[in-house]
Design brief:
The structure holds two protein chains of two kinds.
Chain A: H1 2-22, H2 29-38, H3 55-69, H4 74-85, H5 100-126, H6 138-152
Chain B: H1 2-26, E1 45-47, E2 53-55, E3 63-69, H2 76-91, E4 96-102, H3 107-116, E5 123-125, H4 130-134, E6 142-146, E7 152-157, H5 162-174
Parallel strand pairs in B: 3-4, 4-5
Antiparallel strand pairs in B: 1-2, 3-6, 6-7
Helix pairs in contact in B: 2-5
Classes of the chains: A mainly alpha, B alpha/beta.
């Protein structure tokens, strides 16, 4: 009888094991916030799902929480929103394809600007520091001398 | 040398800016592309205000017009409300199903609208906004047209008119089952 009881207890434990494993894991609120802060609130101006007080954002945070509780990874949760709204939903555009331009262009423009500044500075340095006065012909020189004399009188 | 450099550098800097401005002016800000067009419509099961289960799967093989609305959405939802009912009455015998999904609303206010506009097609609340997010809804009203194969084919952002509803539904009905 005792071995039977032990076997029954073991069966109950074994049955309980997977049941426990299947129960939703505790969701880390920091992870929810981290994902929400990467997503654009669809009804706001320049606010993330984490920062928006709107009901839409609140529902989206709820969905993030549920998906994480269902065992999805943060990347999978993000991909879900991208599938539904497109890459627009991400506050930071992905660093691939055409969107890569957004990341590269500022540095490219900055580089071009620096090169242009360097070129201009070099040109300035090469140019003579003093501009020599234009040569005056003798007639003009004589006229100036006469007018100066008249002024002195 | 210097003149040539200046002559080319100014257009080089100005042209991209002008192109960007022109692109911005020509783009329709109301046209929001949906990545869902052509993709299978997300399945859902809701409970209608009448208490009946409403499942998209049940309507596979029929053209579905799925309308997202709310009682607080003025005036667009109120202006299109008669259009939705008219469309349902005109197309219900031609293989079209009209479904309403009420988002972020209060039960009483939503029921009042259904009664006011005598909506006779299934209307269901969307607790938690799951269906709205599954369809990438930005705001209300938005209307999705789903073909007989269960794919999202068109999306209307903003008020639906008789002409748009007719054009979209006729296109989908004309396709081979």
């Amino acid at each position: 009888m005792t071995p039977l009881l032990v076997a029954a207890a073991a069966l109950v434990l074994l049955a309980g094991g997977p049941a426990r494993a299947a129960s939703p894991p505790a969701v880390n609120e920091e992870t929810v916030h981290e994902i929400a802060s990467q997503l654009r609130c669809v009804v706001c101006q320049s606010l993330s799902v984490a920062d928006s007080p709107s009901e839409t954002a609140s529902q989206m945070r709820g969905i993030i929480r549920e998906r994480l509780a269902a065992g999805e990874t943060p990347a999978q949760v993000r991909d879900y929103f991208v599938d539904k709204y497109g890459p627009w939903i991400l506050l930071s555009p992905p660093r691939r394809g055409f969107d890569l331009l957004v990341w590269v262009a500022p540095f490219l423009v900055l580089g071009i600007g620096l090169v242009m500044v360097a070129l201009v500075v070099r040109r300035w340095r090469r140019a003579p520091s003093r501009v020599s006065p234009p040569a005056l012909d003798s007639a003009v020189r004589e006229r100036i001398r006469r007018e100066m004399e008249e002024l002195d009188r | 040398m210097k003149t040539r450099w200046v002559r080319f550098s100014i257009p080089l800097a100005v042209v991209p800016v002008l192109l960007l401005l022109a692109y911005g002016f020509w783009t329709n800000p109301r046209e929001i592309p949906s990545p869902l067009i052509g993709k299978p419509a997300a399945k859902f099961t809701l409970t209608s205000f009448a208490g009946d289960p409403v499942s998209l799967e049940r309507y596979r093989g029929r053209v579905v017009m799925l309308n997202f609305w709310a009682s607080w959405c003025r005036p667009a939802c109120y202006e299109e409300a008669p259009v939705i009912e008219r469309t349902w009455q005109a197309y219900r015998d031609k293989g079209v199903v009209v479904l309403g999904v009420d988002v972020q609303d209060q039960d009483e206010a939503a029921r009042k609208i259904i009664e006011q506009f005598q909506h006779s097609f299934p209307n269901s609340p969307d607790p938690g906004g799951h269906v709205a997010v599954d369809y990438g809804v930005y705001g209300v009203p938005e209307t999705f047209f789903i073909d007989r194969q269960g794919r999202v084919r068109f999306k209307q952002v903003g008020e639906l008119t008789d002409a748009i509803a007719r054009e979209r539904l006729e296109t989908l009905l004309a396709e081979k089952p």
